[in-house]
Design goal:
Layout (H helix, E strand, L loop, with lengths): L12 H11 L6 H12 L10 H11 L13 H5 L7 H16 L11 H9 L5 H10 L7 H13 L6 H14 L1
Helix pairs in contact: 1-2
Length: about 180
């Protein structure tokens, strides 16, 4: 229910993966982000109002029923304030294999999997190639032996996530300013 009206929306994990990819894409203009998200999540024949209540609902559902955090007008900061240690588009083959191995669920052929169920299972992944990769990406190497640090740095380079064109330009600009 939004503004006293009932709306239908997609709750399958596939749409919510697309939602996360949209919300974390640094190349998407902030002013377009929630309009595109609403088009993705709500069925097309509905005239969904693009209000703060709509954005709060999208965030609430994405976070599996947790109350929306406060945020400022720069909505992308809500998602981009810290980089995720994974990206569904870059890591899907590992996530797919982990779901098959640990849960017997084929994410490609499953007819429907509710986003909240998917997130619970995703958050519980363990002892698989995907979690090894995430561990490499997030490891603090400062206290490691030199040999271990070299290994982790090499693995971090191998499994480095792609960055958006906009983010790459920001990094290049920051480097120029430091020189």
């Amino acid at each position: 229910m939004l503004d006293g009206r009932e709306y239908y929306f997609h709750s399958d994990f596939r749409e919510w993966i697309r939602y996360e990819l949209l919300m974390t894409d640094g190349d998407v203009d902030d002013s377009l982000r929630y309009g595109l998200a609403a088009e993705l999540i709500f069925t097309p024949e509905q005239d969904i109002p693009l209000t703060r209540e709509t954005a709060d609902f999208l965030r609430w559902f994405y976070h599996c029923g947790e109350p929306p955090r406060s945020y400022d007008e720069n909505d992308s900061e809500y998602f981009l304030e810290s980089r995720l240690p994974y990206r569904f588009d870059a890591d899907f083959k590992y996530i797919h294999a982990a779901f098959l191995e640990l849960y017997g669920i084929d994410l490609i052929t499953v007819d429907y999997l509710h986003w909240w169920t998917f997130r619970g299972l995703f958050s519980s992944l363990h002892d698989c190639r995907f979690t090894d990769i995430v561990n490499y990406r997030t490891a603090e190497t400062g206290d490691m032996s030199e040999k271990m640090r070299e290994h982790y740095v090499k693995m971090q380079e191998i499994f480095e996530l792609p960055i958006s064109r906009t983010e790459r330009l920001r990094i290049e600009e920051a480097r120029r300013m430091l020189l």
